[in-house]
Each structure stands twice: as C-alpha cells, then as structure tokens.
Amino acid sequence: MAKRVLLAAPRGYCAGVDRAVITVEKALDLYGAPVYVRKQIVHNKHVVETLEKRGAIFVDETNEVPEGAIVVFSAHGVSPKVHEEAATRNLKTIDATCPLVTKVHHEARRFAAEDLQILLIGHAGHEEVEGTAGEAPDHMQIVDGLEGARTVAIDPNKKVAWLSQTTLSVDETLETVAILKNRFPNLMDPPSDDICYATQNRQVAIKQIAAGADLVLVVGSTNSSNSVRLVEVALEYGAKASYLIDYAAEVKDEWFVGVETIGVSSGASVPEILVTDLLIDLKARGYGDVETVTAMEEHLLFAIPPELRKDLRTAGK
Fold this sequence. Notes:
By secondary structure, this protein is α/β, with parallel strands linked by helices. Helix content is 40%, strand content 18%.
C-alpha cells in the first residue's frame, strides 16, 4: 500500500492572527506581565496556553481587568459598548481586531446610518458576530445557517442588506444569500465580499485534496469557526473521513485502517509547529511521503495596532 500525505497550502496562520499574536507578545515585551486579553486572542488552545506562560491573562469581560491596566482586544473584534466599558475603567486598550473584521464593522455602521435593516449571516454567540452586531444593534438580525435564512422576518417597507461573519463556509454563505435573495429580491450586497481571504483560500486548498484522500486531518480548536468549516468542506468534497485535532497526540489508531492517502491542513489560527508535529507522527506511522498541494500563494501582512506602534517607537524598540 503506497502511503502518502497531501499537505494543503495555504494553511495555518493568516495575517490577522499573526498580527494579533505578535501584538500580545510585543505588549508583554514592552509593558511586562501581566497583560490582560479580553477573550481568547485567537481561537487556538496552544496559542492561548503559550501566551499564558509568558504572562498574558485571558478574561471574558473588561470588568475583570483591574482599573488602569492594559487590555488587548482579540482578533475577533468588540462592540462599541466594550470600548465604552474599558474607557470607564480607565483601561489602556490595544485593539488587535483583524482589519478584515473592522471592515465589516464599518459596513454595519454605514448601512445603519442609511437606516437599513441588516441581516448578519453568522453563528449566534460567536465573538465576531457579537462585536459586529454591537455596531448597530437596533438594525441587526442574526441569520444563523440555512434555516435562519428561511425563517428570518423583515419589515417589508424598509430597505435591507446583508453582511457576514468572516470565517464561514463560502459555499454555505452563498447558499444562505441565495435563499435570502429569493425571499427578499431587493436585498442589497455588502460593497465587497465579507468572508476573509484566508478562510476562502484554506477552503479552496482543502477542496483540492479532499477527493483524493481516505482521511483528512485538520489541526485546529473546536471553538475555531474556520477550522470546523475545513472539516465540513473536506467531507462535502469527497474525503472518506475527516477529524479536527488540537495536537498530534489526539490522533486515534483506528482512523488509519485501510487508509492510503491522508490530507492535512490547519485552521487560520494554528501555528505551523502543530502541523509539523502531526507530520512527524504520520511519518512514524509510515506516511512519510509528503506532497504539498498549493492552491495559491499568500503575501498579505497587517501592521500591528497603532497604539502599540506608538509606544514601541517612544521606547525606542
């Protein structure tokens, strides 16, 4: 049996995640521990645990941060209400919101200023959705999945537009929008696609390897929306089985029965060291022949938040 691995590219860290993690690391270097972070900086267990060891303290809400302390807002973004709460507690805030999420926030505010109803396609309760909805709470309804698209009600006398969470399945979002447009023919589109480039690219890459794989392993955490979507996309596009794992140690022996070709990818919040660990484990199981399948190249970089840049310059770093 010819055992091999098809390694998807691109995979792993996107520009927004890279920026957010570097932001916390540089804040710790500059200000010293502790640096508080509201929510997980990115949805990855390994990243959070690594930063905790360096002195980052993760909290759910700003009222858990001592008055006057430093707090970093996660890559998923926060609502204006959170910014206000931080200001009342005299917190020094560093906003590591992904610029692509910030773009959706701008779109929400613009639609709201035009008094449009906004249908936000996304997962209810997800931090990014809560942050975006908070930009225009009186104008926003969350549409969670296809069933949400079939049942959401709007005011027929007012204009309506849609926005989306940046980390959804591209295919399901298109399907959701099609249902909404069928129900509401005058539904307005956002000025540009909301699903982020990295989410789309990782889904395209996994589609290319899924049909030829007996098993697809996606490295990522269960609370990472884009990682969960990769498992779903792999199964939709022909993989016989697919599993989400945080670490190579979670791989189960029974998954490999009758398996010749394994597809490997990772979510946009996953450091490459975790993929390397998985490839080492697979090699020990006889899957040492690794072929990288490249869907496209990525070169995007985001500058760290301006408030941190300013302090680094002042400190001569």
